[in-house]
Amino acid sequence: MSLVVLGGGVSPFVRKVRAFLIEKGQPCQHEQVNPFAPPEGWREISPLGRIPALRDGERVINDSSVICQYLERRFPDPALYPKDDYEFARALWIEEFMDGGFVPIVGPKLFRALVLQPLLTRKPADDAAEAAARKAWDEEAAPLLDYLERTLGAREWFVGERISIADLSVASPFVNARHAGYAPERKRWPKLRGFLERVWQRPSFAPLIAEEAPIFGTRGERIGD
Q1: SS in 3 state form for the chain?
Q2: 182 partner at 20 to 30 Å CA-CA among 66, 110, 124, 129?
Q3: Cβ 158 vs Cβ 152: under 8 Å
Q4: Other C-beta atoms lying within 10 Å of the C-beta of residue 38
Q5: Which residue(s) pair with 4 in the sheet?
Q6: How many domains does the chain have?
Q7: What angle do CA 161, 54, 73 make, to 5 degrees?
């Protein structure tokens, strides 16, 4: 098998690439790499020290967005980028909106504070961490969820008539929010919540979430409507 995804599976960027490959019907290997304690020589593979990296035979590609565009050209069917120029740009924008806007909130302020840190210290998150996470969700993340709710509207997918990189880019970081015990409230964001539940049931996400849940997903069991 020539395709190998390198990076910690709980990373939203690693998950996005793995889901992309599953949607493409392309088998791959996954090698866990902790970017905070990387293996020797990691900087030779990933010059910025980030995950994921993709190894395709002797070739190495870095950055989840670059990797997905590479895979689209390498395996064009089924297409996961829109053919229409405007829809293509919209898909790239939604990916950037999530990667550059949503992940910097959910990653450090929810997932790291409420899931990773307690795992590392073997101590539950204290009241201050819980309060800070709630504040970040209510004040910083909520406006982004409002935008996603409006953008999705009555459509099944964010861009075009079938699943695309835009949808994978939205669905993946929300798994980390779910692990931290947060999800869009059905009353305020019904379309977004329904979209996530639908995509998370797909073969591209369901096994990845199940793989992570025993370690990272215990708080997710608290999520209600």
Answers
A1: CCEEEECCCCCHHHHHHHHHHHHHCCCCEEECCCCCCCCCCHHHHCCCCCCCEEEECCEEEECHHHHHHHHHHHCCCCCCCCCCHHHHHHHHHHHHHHHHHHHHHHHHHHHHHHHHHHHHHCCCCCHHHHHHHHHHHHHHHHHHHHHHHHHHCCCCCCCCCCCCHHHHHHHHHHHHHHHCCCCCCCCCCHHHHHHHHHHHCCCCCHHHHHHHHHHHCCHHHHCCC
A2: 66
A3: yes
A4: 17
A5: 29, 55
A6: 2
A7: 40
**Please, which pLDDT band fits residue 218 given cuts at 50, 70 and 90?**
confident
Contacts of 98 (CB under 8 A, 6+ apart): 169, 170, 172, 173
pLDDT tens readout for residues 104-142: 999 999 999 999 999 999 999 999 999 999 999 999 999
Q: What percent of the chain has pLDDT over 90?
A: 95
Q: How many CB atoms lie within 10 A of CB 121?
A: 9
- Find the CATH number of the domain harbouring 48: 3.40.30.10
- Is the pLDDT at 68 greater than 80? The verdict is yes
Considering 48, 74, 100, which residue would you say is the last residue of a domain? 74
Q: Which domain holds residue 170?
A: 85-222
